[in-house]
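User: Please fill in residues for this 130-position structure.
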């Protein structure tokens, strides 16, 4: 996963690999970063959030894909964006809890969303070492 963030330091906005049909996008969301990997049949979202998230563009790009959301931390600007996927009836799941101790209110809020099933996690070959 760290290689994705390293690539964005070198190529700041978008990377597209025509051979595998994968597009990497770093959205301008104000403070922080929201990174999306658009690869059929998935849109993988890393730290969805930010003050200026381009929700219409994300909807247009990912509405016909399985949206998988990864959270590194539990700031409200990130976990509140999960509502975007739920309210628009997008096919989505939350891959993980944030990597920190969450208070009970945040845990209960996150539990109201769909978590990824093990079959989805196993099918993500993008994270499987070769």
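Assistant: Residues filled in for all 130 positions:
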């Amino acid at each position: 996963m760290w290689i994705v963030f390293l690539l964005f330091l070198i190529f700041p906005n978008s990377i597209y690999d025509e051979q595998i049909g994968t597009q990497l996008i770093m959205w301008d969301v104000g403070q922080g970063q929201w990174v999306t990997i658009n690869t059929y049949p998935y849109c993988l979202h890393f730290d969805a959030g930010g003050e200026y998230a381009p929700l219409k563009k994300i909807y247009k790009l990912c509405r016909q894909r399985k949206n998988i959301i990864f959270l590194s931390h539990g700031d409200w600007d990130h976990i509140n964006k999960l509502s975007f996927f739920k309210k628009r009836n997008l096919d989505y799941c939350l891959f993980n809890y944030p990597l920190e101790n969450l208070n009970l209110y945040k845990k209960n809020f996150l539990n109201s969303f769909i978590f990824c099933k093990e079959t989805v996690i196993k099918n993500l070959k993008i994270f499987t070492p070769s």
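For context: The chain has a mean pLDDT of 80.
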